[in-house]
Amino acid sequence: MRLVLVLGDQLSIDLSALLKTDKAEDVVVIAEVADEACYVPHHPKKIAFTFSAMRKFAQKLRDDGWTVAYTKLDDPENSGSITGELIRRAVEHDAAGVVYTEPGEWRLIEALGNMPLKTHSLPDTRFIATHQEFEEWAEGRKQLRMEYFYRDMRRKTGLLMDDDKPEGGKWNYDHDNRKPAPDQVDYAGPMQFAPDKTVAEVLALVGARFGDNFGDLQPFWFATDTGQARQHLAHWLKGGLPKFGDFQDAMLNDNRFLYHAIIGLYINAGLLDPLEVCQKAEEAYRAGAAPLNAVEGFIRQIIGWREYVRGIYFREGPDYTARNALGHDRKLPAMYWGGETKMNCVAKSVGQTKAEAYAHHIQRLMVTGNFALLAGIDPAEVHEWYLAVYADAYEWVEAPNVIGMSQFADDGIIASKPYISSGNYIHKMSDYCGSCAYRVQDKTGEDACPFNLLYWHFLDRHRERFSGNPRMGNMYRVWDRMDGARRETVLQEADNFLQRMDAGQPV
Ligand code: FAD
Ligand code: DLZ
Ligand code: SF4
User: Fold this and answer.
1) Ligand 2: residues within 6 Å at CB?
2) Ligand 2 atom 7 nearest Cα
3) Which keywords does the record carry (predicted)?
4) ipTM for the whole complex
5) Domain CATH number, residue 404
6) Of 126, 272, 392, 407, which is best to mutate to test ligand 1, by the most ligand atoms within 8 angstroms of its C-beta?
7) What is the domain range of residue 361?
8) What is the DSSP code string of 295-354?
9) Residue at which a domain ends, from 122, 156, 175
């Protein structure tokens, strides 16, 4: 007999390791371990979601006839690591070896590869593109533009295709999307599930062990099995998808979810299959229940961006998370962990992250990510923060988004220019600025929006690297045309702001 490892983000009944082994002979190993729960200080909701879904998946496997060796976190025999548990179970069951599906993180790939047991690693077939397909696509290209990769994924899956042409004649309908924040949101938000007995037990454990981690454990309402996740998906397809594209980039003080799907955590943990999700969205379009701009935009996020960032993570190798092309070395300020800040956009984005283990893409990119980049925060600290605080965060997807897209620390593999903006963009896309202590209109002075000051500070300190970038020339021309004394004031005020922040003063 062999052991079959199932990790906390591999909770799929069609996982390659389960398909290639034998339920009559082999033993599934699922383990709650301190190493995985503590390698970053995960949000308590994320840990509770993971353990609850693991326990329910183990029960589903047992119901399906598998033998499961499940280790709970508080099991006195728990060795504390995935490899430790495999070794312990191998002795217990006299196993000939371990079969597993490739993990989504180099750290674990290396640890499993170095175990003193016979191992057999299988590809993770829950993705649309194989590693080889991504490599072949990337080979020889000067720039790895997601858009072209996405078109290949459309052709491969047949999603939104009209024979060999894109549905509606265009591959991308983004110019119809991304409207400013709406006055009213006519979708009630994600479906919420009351904790059942399994979840309640996990909540007690997580509250006792991880109650001091950043993040609110209660109220806990995530789906924790595939049936619930599918119910939530159906609810969102009906109520959220039709306006998903329109308000994808909008942000509101009083609405944490807008029309977003809140399914990243379910897909990444294995509760929902990405292709199934996209097919359901396409069905909604074909039935006339959602417009093409919404459905195309949504499908692009999943078969485009999600697959593309995974390709980059595995192509770039284990050192990717240590990259720091811009040489940023400032410490992550306390406001990211809930410390006081006068910047309403940051307070709201961090506040909802603390409450929900969730913020949507533009909050992650253009508020917390933008601020960290403008302020010159060490990308490794930024990366650890994102990996810890979001329920959907696993390194293969988080690192390219943070190190690459958001912090430009990979020197432009993902982003052709840094995602930076002054307060103006946040003002346009949200209602945050109206209730902020700073004034978004002010470019200098005591009340000036810090994004306005830091924006020029960033451009000025990275002039050598970016002034030749054709997409940034305009920004430098505006800066250079500014009166010299005014430029001095901006830089001085930005420095003062950073000094106050570094000294731990609320800014
Ligand atoms: P929606 O906005 O409704 O989008 C639907 C789905 O599209 C998502 O669930 C996700 O599966 C996929 N998707 C959309 N954008 C991306 C993207 N850029 N990369 C990969 N998949 C995408 N996503 C994660 O899954 N895990 C992360 O740890 C993560 N960290 C991020 C960090 C930063 C700095 C940024 C800018 C983005 C990050 N993203 C991450 C991408 C994106 O923000 C989330 O996938 C999304 O906010 C999840 O919420 P949702 O399910 O409501 O998504
Ligand atoms: C995120 C997470 C947590 C909090 N705990 C566990 C765990 O105890 N056992 C486990 O198998 N997986 C856990 N996970 C998910 C893993 O961290 C994830 O499989 C790796 O990071 C690879 O993506
Ligand atoms: Fe954020 Fe500046 Fe607007 Fe305040 S004024 S909410 S700091 S963008």
Assistant:
1) 7-9, 31-33, 36-37, 42, 47, 50, 82, 103-105, 108, 394
2) 32
3) Lyase
4) 0.99
5) 1.10.579.10
6) 392
7) 334-502
8) HHHHHIIIIIIIHHHHHHHHHH-GGGGG--TT---BPPPGGGGT---S-HHHHHHHHHHH
9) 122
